[in-house]
Amino acid sequence: MIQLRSFKAFMLLSMALLPAASCVADFVVRELGREDGKPDRFFVPYGFSSEGMGLVAGVAGGISGLPQEQNSFFTTALVSDEGAAAVYAFFNDYQFSRIPRLFLDAAVGLGEFPQKRTYIDASPPVNKPPAGSNDSAADDFFRADGFSNWIELDFKYVFDIGHGRYTPINTYTLSNGLLVGGASGGGVFNPFKSGRSYVQAKLFHQDRDYDAVDPSVLLKTSGIGLSFKYDNTDFQVNPSTGNVFEIGIKHDPGSHENENWTVAELEYSQYFKLTPGARVEQSVIAIDFWTAHNFSADSSPYYVGPTLGGLYRLRAYPIERFHDRSAIYYSAEYRVIPESDLLRSLRFLDFANLQWWSLAAFIEYGRVAPEWNIKELHESMKHDVGLSMRVMATQDIGRFDLVWSKDDTAAWLMYGHPF
């Protein structure tokens, strides 16, 4: 049976059960024929049912365009009939006036969840693969009451090269949700000639606790992340051409009586714009490669190390289903936007600025391993296939994924492309 494992109302709210993903969004989006620069506010009640939390009721609200045009603030709070409760808040893209190429994102989350499914061993495993490993059983998990709290500060600096040379804040111009001006890359793979380049520093603290886990299991961490990102796509929200390269490390120097750990990640994405066919507005082939490795003698908390499963990688599997010291992942998507005015004609939804809908078909391969060994990482790989429906609303992407594998099946309601 397909289960809705997680929920994100994709039109006007943003709710996360995980720390905010690393992102670069120093831009504004303007639609031809619509008023520019006016702050946009929203307040939305919502409800849903999920496998892990039962019946949930919540509210979300936020404002964009204050105090600076590219800024956005949103928050959400929820409770459930199973005893779950959570509050999340996000503030994005504050530009420092004295260093105009420096931006700040901030996020905080406080949540308590009953009977959360967790793929780790509550005590050292005996005569079986460790829970969460590539060969672990699908039912090798436990459920326990616990909480997940986190705070994150992200500082990002836009280099004065390529398309970033002209302005630290890029302005995209859209017509019916498709890019017609302000492309931020898509040319030759050269940071000095095309695209926008960033260095990012992340300060983080994450704390989890499960009633059934041995106290010696590492679940709390604080540290810093450093990364370099080269975004050579035409439109960061919905790329149709170009590529993205990112490399970074996360490090805990030994906080909370932990041993220190260091995890490195590398990701490369490529986008190919195809010639539109009959009754097609845009079609794109998107491919993605990602790998990660823990270089330390000691393991990091499982949820900040190399993991697969959930909203973005191996979507047929639950969040953090697989984790180990190393991981590798491949994905390919075919994305097509049909020629249709269906969403644009729904006048009662004008407040959401619905622009287009699209379909995507995708396939994913990946696996985790105790060491980064190219041969082992390509043996007994997990894979899945899926279909997705996506919409452009309020200058962002909402997606509904249905994904199948031989081991599991899942449905996800989320915002943003997976890559």
Question: Keywords for this structure?
Answer:
globular, mainly beta, 419 residues, 17-stranded mixed β-sheet, 22 strands, Porin, 53% strand, 3-stranded mixed β-sheet
Describe the structure.
There is one protein chain. With 419 residues, the chain is mainly β. It has a single domain (4-415), classed as Porin. 1% of the residues lie in helices and 53% in strands. The chain has 1 helix and 22 strands. The protein has one helix spanning 374-377; strands spanning 4-6, 27-31, 40-50, 54-64, 72-80, 85-95, 102-118, 142-158, 170-175, 178-181, 196-210, 220-233, 242-252, 261-274, 280-294, 307-308, 322-323, 326-338, 354-369, 382-393, 396-404, 409-415. The strands form 3 sheets. The chain has a 17-stranded mixed beta sheet, with no helix packed on it. Strands 2-9-10 form a 3-stranded mixed beta sheet, with no helix packed on it. Strand 3 (40-50) and strand 4 (54-64) form a beta hairpin. It starts with a strand and ends with a strand.
Quick synopsis:
The chain is mainly beta. It has one domain: membrane protein fhac: a member of the omp85/tpsb transporter family (Porin, Beta Barrel), CATH 2.40.160.50. The protein contains one helix and 22 strands.
Name given to the CATH homologous superfamily: membrane protein fhac: a member of the omp85/tpsb transporter family
The CATH architecture can be given as: Beta Barrel
What is the arithmetic mean of pLDDT?
Answer: 87
Oligomer: single chain
**Helix residue percentage:** under 10%
Give the helix/strand class: mainly beta
Q: Any low-confidence stretches, pLDDT <50, length ≥5?
A: 1-22
Q: Give the SSE string.
A: EEEEEEEEEEEEEEEEEEEHEEE
